[in-house]
C-alpha cells in the first residue's frame, strides 16, 4: 500500500497529502476496484433482464448476516456469502425446473429473504438498529486487506466475463437453442448468479443495501445507449465512482448514494446521445 499512498500524494487534494487521511486513499483504491466490477456485471445483468435479482440477493445477504450474528460469529460476512450463494443456486434451479418467469421468482425470493432477515434480527426483542449500517454503507471504512479481496473477485469476474459472456447471454435469451449448442445452461446461469451473490454480499457493507441494485443496473443501462457497450459500462462506472467519492467527501453525504446519483445523471445524458444518433 505504500506505493499507492505515494502515488495518491501527487493528486491536488488536501486529503492526498502524505501520511494524512489514509481512509480516503483506501476508499479511492476500493472505488477503482469496485466500479469496474459493477460495470462488467452490469452488462450481464441488463442483457439477461435480471435487474432486480441483485435486490433479492442483497436481502439474502442481509439474512445471512443476521444468521451469522445469531450464531455468534465475529465476522458474519462469511455466513452471508454462503447463504447468498445457496439462494442463487435455489433460484437458478427453481427457475430452470419450473420455467417460472424471472420477475416472479425474484419477487418470491426477495420477499421471503427480507422477511426472514427481519424476523431473525428482531428475534427475542432484539433491536434492528445494529444492521442500519448495512442499509447505507460506508466505503470509508474499507481496509487494505478487503481491497485485496475485491481485486481477486474482480479478476474472477473478468475471467468469467471473458469465457462465459456469450453462452450466458444465449442461455438467458433462448435456453433451447443454448442446449442444442451444447451449453450447460443451468451451470452457466448458476455461475452468473453466484458471481452476483458474492459481489453484492462482499460490497454491501461499503456501498449500502439500499443503492447496490442501482450500481448493478445503471452502468449497463447507460452504456446500451452508446457505442462500445462494455467499455462504456466500465469507464462510466469508474468515472461516476470517483466523482461520487469526491462529492461525498466534500458535501458530507453517503458515498453509495452519491455514486448512484451520478450514474443516474449519466444514464439520462446517454439518452440524449441515443436520441441524436
Summarize this entry quickly.
By secondary structure, this protein is an all-alpha fold. Helix content is 77%, strand content 0%.
Write a structural description.
With 277 residues, this protein is mainly α. The chain contains 12 helices and no strands. Helix 3 packs across helix 4 (77-98), helix 4 (77-98) runs antiparallel to helix 9 (185-207) and helix 7 (144-173) runs antiparallel to helix 9 (185-207). The chain is globular. The protein starts with a helix and ends with a helix. The relative contact order is 0.16. The mean pLDDT is 79.
Distance between the termini: 44 Å
Number of strands: 0
Strand proportion: under 5%
Q: Strand count, sense and closure of the main sheet?
A: none
**What is the N-to-C order of secondary-structure elements (H for helix, E for strand)?**
HHHHHHHHHHHH
Q: Compute the gyration radius: what is it?
A: 19 Å
Mean pLDDT score, rounded? 79
Computed structural class: mainly alpha
Feature tags:
single chain; 277 residues; mainly alpha; 12 helices; 0% strand
Please give the structural blueprint:
Elements: H1 2-8, H2 22-47, H3 53-70, H4 77-98, H5 102-121, H6 132-136, H7 144-173, H8 175-180, H9 185-207, H10 212-223, H11 229-251, H12 255-276
